[in-house]
Amino acid sequence: xxxxxxxxxxxxxxxxxxxxxxxxxxxxxATSFLRRRYTRDLSGYDLAVTGIPFDQxxxxxxxxxxxxxxxxxxSSLQPYDPPYGWDGYSPxxxxxxxxxxxxPFDYAHxxxxxxxxxxxxxxxxxxxxxxxxxxxxxxxxxxxxxxxAAKHGPLALIQFDAHTDTWxxxxxxxxxxxxxxxxxxxxxxxxxxxxxxxxIRTVVDDNLGIEIxxxxxxxxxxxxxxxxxxxxxxxxxxxxxxxxxDALDPAFAPGTGTPVWGGLSSGQAAILLRDLAGxxxxxxxxxxxxxxxxxxxxxxxxxxxxxxxxxxxWGWTRR
Length: 319
Description:
This protein is of the alpha/beta class. It has one domain (3-316): Arginase, Chain A (3-Layer(aba) Sandwich), CATH 3.40.800. The protein has helices at residues 3-8, 12-15, 67-74, 91-94, 113-125, 141-152, 180-186, 215-221, 223-234, 266-274, 298-316; strands at 37-38, 47-52, 97-102, 130-135, 156-160, 196-198, 211-213, 238-244, 280-287. The protein is globular and about 55 Å long.
Protein backbone atom coordinates (compact mmCIF):
# COMPACT_ATOMS: atom_id res chain seq x y z
CA UNK A 1 0.00 0.00 0.00
CA UNK A 2 1.38 3.44 -0.94
CA UNK A 3 2.21 5.85 1.86
CA UNK A 4 -0.51 8.29 0.87
CA UNK A 5 -3.04 5.47 0.78
CA UNK A 6 -1.89 4.31 4.22
CA UNK A 7 -2.43 7.79 5.62
CA UNK A 8 -5.97 7.70 4.36
CA UNK A 9 -6.58 4.38 6.11
CA UNK A 10 -6.07 6.02 9.51
CA UNK A 11 -8.96 7.49 11.51
CA UNK A 12 -7.07 10.13 13.47
CA UNK A 13 -9.73 10.21 16.17
CA UNK A 14 -8.84 6.61 17.06
CA UNK A 15 -5.26 5.92 15.99
CA UNK A 16 -3.80 9.22 14.81
CA UNK A 17 -0.56 10.85 15.88
CA UNK A 18 -0.73 13.85 18.25
CA UNK A 19 0.42 16.25 15.52
CA UNK A 20 -0.36 16.69 11.85
CA UNK A 21 -3.00 17.77 9.39
CA UNK A 22 -5.89 15.46 8.53
CA UNK A 23 -6.30 13.19 5.52
CA UNK A 24 -9.63 11.44 6.06
CA UNK A 25 -12.90 12.30 4.41
CA UNK A 26 -14.53 15.18 6.26
CA UNK A 27 -17.94 13.49 6.05
CA UNK A 28 -16.89 10.21 7.67
CA UNK A 29 -15.20 8.83 10.76
CA ALA A 30 -15.45 9.64 14.45
CA THR A 31 -16.35 13.26 15.11
CA SER A 32 -13.50 14.28 17.36
CA PHE A 33 -12.54 17.94 17.40
CA LEU A 34 -10.30 18.69 14.41
CA ARG A 35 -9.87 14.93 13.93
CA ARG A 36 -7.65 14.81 17.01
CA ARG A 37 -7.28 11.55 18.90
CA TYR A 38 -9.67 10.80 21.75
CA THR A 39 -7.67 10.15 24.92
CA ARG A 40 -7.67 10.89 28.64
CA ASP A 41 -3.93 10.19 28.92
CA LEU A 42 -2.31 13.53 28.16
CA SER A 43 1.30 12.39 28.46
CA GLY A 44 3.15 14.20 25.68
CA TYR A 45 0.19 16.42 24.78
CA ASP A 46 0.29 20.21 24.87
CA LEU A 47 -3.42 20.95 24.86
CA ALA A 48 -6.74 19.16 25.33
CA VAL A 49 -10.15 20.06 23.96
CA THR A 50 -13.04 18.93 26.13
CA GLY A 51 -16.81 19.28 26.11
CA ILE A 52 -19.15 20.26 28.95
CA PRO A 53 -22.67 19.44 27.65
CA PHE A 54 -24.53 21.27 30.41
CA ASP A 55 -27.44 23.65 29.72
CA GLN A 56 -29.62 23.57 32.83
CA UNK A 57 -28.96 27.17 33.92
CA UNK A 58 -30.32 28.99 30.87
CA UNK A 59 -32.88 31.79 31.17
CA UNK A 60 -34.57 31.15 27.83
CA UNK A 61 -33.94 28.43 25.23
CA UNK A 62 -32.13 25.22 26.22
CA UNK A 63 -30.18 23.06 23.76
CA UNK A 64 -26.52 23.85 24.34
CA UNK A 65 -26.03 20.36 25.78
CA UNK A 66 -25.75 19.40 22.12
CA UNK A 67 -23.16 22.11 21.47
CA UNK A 68 -19.94 20.10 21.92
CA UNK A 69 -21.12 17.39 19.54
CA UNK A 70 -22.18 19.90 16.89
CA UNK A 71 -18.96 21.92 17.18
CA UNK A 72 -16.89 18.76 16.78
CA UNK A 73 -18.81 17.80 13.66
CA UNK A 74 -18.46 21.30 12.21
CA SER A 75 -14.71 21.22 12.87
CA SER A 76 -14.24 18.28 10.47
CA LEU A 77 -13.72 20.72 7.57
CA GLN A 78 -10.88 22.60 9.24
CA PRO A 79 -7.86 20.32 9.83
CA TYR A 80 -6.69 19.95 6.22
CA ASP A 81 -4.76 23.22 6.00
CA PRO A 82 -3.20 25.69 8.43
CA PRO A 83 -5.74 28.31 9.59
CA TYR A 84 -5.89 31.46 7.49
CA GLY A 85 -4.47 34.69 8.85
CA TRP A 86 -1.76 33.31 11.14
CA ASP A 87 1.30 33.98 8.96
CA GLY A 88 1.77 30.33 8.13
CA TYR A 89 1.56 29.14 11.74
CA SER A 90 0.08 25.63 11.75
CA PRO A 91 -1.01 24.67 15.28
CA UNK A 92 -2.07 21.15 14.29
CA UNK A 93 1.47 20.47 13.11
CA UNK A 94 3.27 22.29 15.93
CA UNK A 95 1.11 21.30 18.90
CA UNK A 96 0.14 17.89 20.24
CA UNK A 97 -3.61 18.26 20.70
CA UNK A 98 -6.02 15.70 22.17
CA UNK A 99 -9.78 15.47 22.27
CA UNK A 100 -10.44 14.71 25.93
CA UNK A 101 -14.08 13.86 25.28
CA UNK A 102 -17.07 15.20 27.21
CA UNK A 103 -17.36 15.44 30.97
CA PRO A 104 -19.81 12.84 32.31
CA PHE A 105 -22.25 13.95 34.99
CA ASP A 106 -25.59 13.03 36.50
CA TYR A 107 -28.12 15.42 34.94
CA ALA A 108 -30.47 14.78 37.89
CA HIS A 109 -27.92 16.17 40.38
CA UNK A 110 -27.47 19.66 39.00
CA UNK A 111 -25.95 21.14 42.21
CA UNK A 112 -23.02 18.72 41.87
CA UNK A 113 -22.10 19.88 38.35
CA UNK A 114 -19.91 22.96 39.10
CA UNK A 115 -17.59 20.98 41.36
CA UNK A 116 -17.39 18.23 38.76
CA UNK A 117 -16.49 20.77 36.07
CA UNK A 118 -13.76 22.27 38.24
CA UNK A 119 -12.30 18.82 38.95
CA UNK A 120 -12.59 17.79 35.30
CA UNK A 121 -10.66 20.80 34.04
CA UNK A 122 -8.17 20.59 36.91
CA UNK A 123 -7.52 17.02 35.80
CA UNK A 124 -6.38 18.35 32.42
CA UNK A 125 -4.26 21.12 33.88
CA UNK A 126 -2.66 18.76 36.41
CA UNK A 127 -1.41 16.63 33.51
CA UNK A 128 0.49 19.64 32.19
CA UNK A 129 -1.84 20.41 29.27
CA UNK A 130 -3.90 23.50 28.56
CA UNK A 131 -7.68 23.23 28.25
CA UNK A 132 -9.99 24.60 25.58
CA UNK A 133 -13.61 23.87 26.47
CA UNK A 134 -16.71 23.49 24.30
CA UNK A 135 -20.01 24.34 26.01
CA UNK A 136 -22.60 24.09 27.22
CA UNK A 137 -24.15 27.25 28.65
CA UNK A 138 -22.10 30.07 30.11
CA UNK A 139 -22.44 28.93 33.72
CA UNK A 140 -19.67 26.41 33.02
CA UNK A 141 -17.08 29.17 32.82
CA UNK A 142 -17.16 29.90 36.57
CA UNK A 143 -15.87 26.49 37.72
CA UNK A 144 -13.44 26.46 34.78
CA UNK A 145 -12.05 29.77 36.04
CA UNK A 146 -11.76 28.30 39.52
CA UNK A 147 -9.57 25.50 38.15
CA UNK A 148 -7.39 27.93 36.18
CA ALA A 149 -7.05 30.43 39.03
CA ALA A 150 -5.99 27.63 41.36
CA LYS A 151 -3.09 26.95 39.00
CA HIS A 152 -2.21 30.41 37.66
CA GLY A 153 -3.60 32.84 40.23
CA PRO A 154 -6.13 35.60 39.43
CA LEU A 155 -6.60 36.03 35.70
CA ALA A 156 -7.51 38.75 33.26
CA LEU A 157 -10.77 37.86 31.54
CA ILE A 158 -11.53 38.64 27.91
CA GLN A 159 -15.24 37.97 27.40
CA PHE A 160 -16.95 38.18 24.03
CA ASP A 161 -20.68 38.35 24.71
CA ALA A 162 -23.96 40.16 24.16
CA HIS A 163 -24.35 40.22 27.96
CA THR A 164 -21.86 41.07 30.70
CA ASP A 165 -23.10 38.26 32.99
CA THR A 166 -22.48 40.47 36.02
CA TRP A 167 -26.06 40.64 37.27
CA UNK A 168 -26.40 40.50 41.08
CA UNK A 169 -26.35 37.01 42.58
CA UNK A 170 -25.25 36.55 46.18
CA UNK A 171 -26.33 32.92 46.46
CA UNK A 172 -23.28 30.67 45.99
CA UNK A 173 -25.56 27.67 45.41
CA UNK A 174 -27.31 29.22 42.39
CA UNK A 175 -26.15 28.09 38.95
CA UNK A 176 -26.94 30.80 36.40
CA UNK A 177 -25.38 31.57 33.04
CA UNK A 178 -26.06 35.28 33.53
CA UNK A 179 -24.14 35.75 36.78
CA UNK A 180 -20.92 33.77 36.39
CA UNK A 181 -18.73 36.81 35.76
CA UNK A 182 -19.96 38.71 38.78
CA UNK A 183 -19.28 35.71 40.98
CA UNK A 184 -15.80 35.35 39.46
CA UNK A 185 -15.04 38.96 40.45
CA UNK A 186 -16.34 38.47 43.99
CA UNK A 187 -14.37 35.25 44.40
CA UNK A 188 -11.17 36.95 43.27
CA UNK A 189 -10.74 34.65 40.27
CA UNK A 190 -10.34 37.53 37.83
CA UNK A 191 -8.85 41.01 38.04
CA UNK A 192 -11.52 43.52 36.92
CA UNK A 193 -8.92 46.17 36.09
CA UNK A 194 -7.27 43.83 33.55
CA UNK A 195 -10.53 42.38 32.20
CA UNK A 196 -12.79 43.46 29.34
CA UNK A 197 -16.16 42.73 27.77
CA UNK A 198 -16.45 42.87 23.97
CA UNK A 199 -19.64 43.00 21.92
CA ILE A 200 -22.05 43.93 24.72
CA ARG A 201 -25.50 45.18 23.74
CA THR A 202 -27.60 44.79 26.90
CA VAL A 203 -27.93 47.10 29.91
CA VAL A 204 -26.15 46.49 33.20
CA ASP A 205 -26.19 48.85 36.20
CA ASP A 206 -22.82 47.91 37.69
CA ASN A 207 -20.16 46.11 35.69
CA LEU A 208 -17.87 45.76 38.71
CA GLY A 209 -15.01 47.74 37.19
CA ILE A 210 -14.70 45.70 33.98
CA GLU A 211 -14.41 47.87 30.85
CA ILE A 212 -17.11 47.43 28.21
CA UNK A 213 -16.29 47.67 24.51
CA UNK A 214 -19.80 47.33 23.19
CA UNK A 215 -20.91 46.17 19.77
CA UNK A 216 -21.52 49.70 18.51
CA UNK A 217 -17.96 50.67 19.36
CA UNK A 218 -16.68 47.63 17.45
CA UNK A 219 -18.74 48.69 14.43
CA UNK A 220 -17.63 52.33 14.63
CA UNK A 221 -13.94 51.93 15.59
CA UNK A 222 -13.27 48.69 13.72
CA UNK A 223 -12.06 45.35 15.05
CA UNK A 224 -8.35 46.13 14.74
CA UNK A 225 -8.67 49.17 17.01
CA UNK A 226 -10.76 47.22 19.51
CA UNK A 227 -8.19 44.40 19.58
CA UNK A 228 -5.50 46.98 20.34
CA UNK A 229 -7.58 48.32 23.21
CA UNK A 230 -8.13 44.80 24.58
CA UNK A 231 -4.39 44.13 24.46
CA UNK A 232 -3.73 47.41 26.29
CA UNK A 233 -6.19 46.47 29.06
CA UNK A 234 -4.90 42.92 29.51
CA UNK A 235 -1.22 43.75 29.08
CA UNK A 236 1.07 40.90 30.02
CA UNK A 237 -1.31 39.41 32.61
CA UNK A 238 -2.17 35.72 32.39
CA UNK A 239 -5.61 35.68 30.82
CA UNK A 240 -8.61 33.52 30.02
CA UNK A 241 -10.82 34.07 26.97
CA UNK A 242 -14.49 33.13 27.06
CA UNK A 243 -16.44 33.45 23.82
CA UNK A 244 -20.22 33.36 24.11
CA UNK A 245 -21.43 32.72 20.57
CA ASP A 246 -24.20 35.29 21.07
CA ALA A 247 -21.47 37.93 20.78
CA LEU A 248 -22.13 37.38 17.09
CA ASP A 249 -25.24 38.88 15.53
CA PRO A 250 -28.09 36.35 15.07
CA ALA A 251 -27.53 36.65 11.31
CA PHE A 252 -24.20 34.86 11.86
CA ALA A 253 -25.14 32.73 14.88
CA PRO A 254 -28.88 32.08 15.18
CA GLY A 255 -28.39 28.89 17.18
CA THR A 256 -28.13 30.30 20.67
CA GLY A 257 -30.39 30.68 23.68
CA THR A 258 -30.54 34.47 24.12
CA PRO A 259 -29.94 36.12 20.72
CA VAL A 260 -29.63 39.93 20.57
CA TRP A 261 -29.52 41.95 17.36
CA GLY A 262 -26.75 44.37 16.46
CA GLY A 263 -23.88 42.01 17.24
CA LEU A 264 -20.51 41.31 15.69
CA SER A 265 -20.09 39.72 12.31
CA SER A 266 -18.03 36.58 12.01
CA GLY A 267 -15.51 38.61 10.00
CA GLN A 268 -15.12 41.15 12.80
CA ALA A 269 -14.69 38.36 15.34
CA ALA A 270 -12.01 36.73 13.21
CA ILE A 271 -9.98 39.94 12.98
CA LEU A 272 -10.41 40.63 16.69
CA LEU A 273 -9.21 37.19 17.72
CA ARG A 274 -6.26 37.12 15.33
CA ASP A 275 -5.13 40.59 16.39
CA LEU A 276 -4.92 39.39 20.01
CA ALA A 277 -1.92 37.22 19.10
CA GLY A 278 0.73 37.49 21.79
CA UNK A 279 -1.53 37.62 24.85
CA UNK A 280 -0.60 35.23 27.65
CA UNK A 281 -3.59 32.94 27.16
CA UNK A 282 -3.91 30.19 29.75
CA UNK A 283 -7.21 28.71 28.56
CA UNK A 284 -10.49 29.45 26.89
CA UNK A 285 -13.96 28.32 25.97
CA UNK A 286 -16.69 28.77 23.40
CA UNK A 287 -20.19 28.46 24.84
CA UNK A 288 -23.92 28.81 24.13
CA UNK A 289 -23.99 27.04 20.74
CA UNK A 290 -27.52 25.59 20.62
CA UNK A 291 -27.98 23.22 17.65
CA UNK A 292 -31.81 22.99 17.89
CA UNK A 293 -31.97 26.64 16.77
CA UNK A 294 -29.03 26.48 14.37
CA UNK A 295 -29.99 27.05 10.73
CA UNK A 296 -27.80 24.89 8.46
CA UNK A 297 -25.28 24.42 11.26
CA UNK A 298 -23.81 27.89 10.79
CA UNK A 299 -23.55 28.61 14.52
CA UNK A 300 -21.63 25.39 15.09
CA UNK A 301 -19.30 26.34 12.21
CA UNK A 302 -18.66 29.68 13.91
CA UNK A 303 -18.06 27.93 17.23
CA UNK A 304 -15.56 25.53 15.67
CA UNK A 305 -13.64 28.42 14.11
CA UNK A 306 -13.58 30.30 17.41
CA UNK A 307 -12.15 27.22 19.15
CA UNK A 308 -9.46 26.95 16.47
CA UNK A 309 -8.57 30.61 17.00
CA UNK A 310 -8.25 29.97 20.74
CA UNK A 311 -5.83 27.15 19.98
CA UNK A 312 -3.85 29.50 17.73
CA UNK A 313 -3.77 32.19 20.43
CA TRP A 314 -2.53 29.68 23.01
CA GLY A 315 0.12 28.28 20.70
CA TRP A 316 1.30 31.56 19.17
CA THR A 317 3.57 32.51 22.08
CA ARG A 318 4.82 28.92 22.35
CA ARG A 319 6.04 28.50 18.78
